Amino acid sequence: AIGGLVWQDHRPFGTTGTDDRESIRALRRGLDLGINFFDTSNSYGAGHSETLIGKAFEGRRDEVVIATKFGKSFDEAARTIGPERYDPDSIRSDCEASLRRMKTTVIDLYQFHIKRCDPLEAVDIRGVLEELVDAGKIRAYGWSTNLPESATIFAEGARCTAIQLHFSVFGGAEAALALCEKHDLAGIVRGPLQKGLLTGKFTAETTFPPDDIRHSWNMKEASQAELLAKMEAIRDVLSSRGRTPAQGSLCWLWAKSPAMIPIPGFKTVAQVEDNAGAMSFGPLNDGEMKEIDALLEPTESA
């Protein structure tokens, strides 16, 4: 979210209402609270998110593990996202640009940011990433995809260490998670708070401004209303033992699999403090997990 608003196919992608000074304070506050893994993409904010990370951790680079992504073209000045771009020369030049924006000499984790591509192309991309590791430009690589058939191609690479996948209390990419567990890869969890729905702050009357990526959400529509109902059903379990609903949702992921590393988004210091507070609780216990399973289990129709 800290990248701010950009446009893709004439539609808003990202959010407004961000403040760069608050974003930098929030990043540094997270580090002070014990968060040392930060995930972004070169396309977030058309490069702006990476720039903020570079400013926030200047002088403290050795304290953080930085992950970013590649695979989409963009115009920094116009703040627009363009077509996919992942030929070998573009991968190398995008890597150099990310290094420059983040004021670092090496990217800890470099992730392919396209859901799928031709398998033979994927093997070639993996080869380019292996070359970047050998050159000292990146330390490891991964793929941001829910598709196990895509992830498997990278998982076979020597320096692949992670797959980024969607997951939350409401479900997710089970097959991709199983692949991470099988190959001892980190499962980096995007959307762990379901774009804010699992914070428990939304109601049927909630609306979003036109330039918010969630503007199309209609909380009274059947699919969104169903998610709101599920949230209310499990709210008490998530927030038991002093947790906030957001903290409980993160703790659920840690209990689901030790491979999971959730990456909740934020725009403010307060949101970072809330997210970081989950670490003091650790994974939900077996009883809490079973209770949530029971509450979310579909009821059989008569």
Report on this model:
With 302 residues, the protein is α/β, with parallel strands linked by helices. Helices cover 39% and strands 17% of the residues. The protein contains ten helices and twelve strands. Strands 3, 4, 7, 8, 9, 10, 11 and 12 form an eight-stranded mixed beta sheet that branches. Helix 4 links the parallel strand 7 and strand 8 (141-144). Helix 7 (222-238) packs across helix 8 and helix 7 packs antiparallel against helix 10 (286-296). The longest helix has 17 residues, at 222-238.
Condensed summary:
The chain is an alpha/beta fold and 302 residues long. The chain is built from ten helices and twelve strands. It has helices spanning 20-32, 48-56, 88-101, 119-134, 148-155, 174-183, 222-238, 245-256, 269-276, 286-296, and strands at 6-8, 11-13, 37-39, 65-70, 72-75, 80-84, 109-112, 141-144, 160-168, 171-172, 186-190, 260-262.
Jot down its keywords.
302 residues, alpha/beta, eight-stranded mixed sheet, four-stranded mixed sheet, 10 helices, 39% helix, globular
Query: Hey, roughly how much beta strand do the residues contain?
Result: 15-25%
Radius of gyration: 19 Å
Structural class given helices, strands, pairing? alpha/beta
Q: How much is the average pLDDT?
A: 94
Counted beta strands: 12
**Which sheet architecture does the biggest sheet show?**
8 strands, mixed
Note the total helix count. 10
**What best-fitting shape do the alpha-carbon axes yield?**
globular
Runs in which pLDDT lies below 50 for 5 or more consecutive residues are: none
Distance between the termini: 44 Å
Helical content, roughly? 25-40%
Order of helices and strands: EEHEHEEEHEHEHEEHEHHEHH
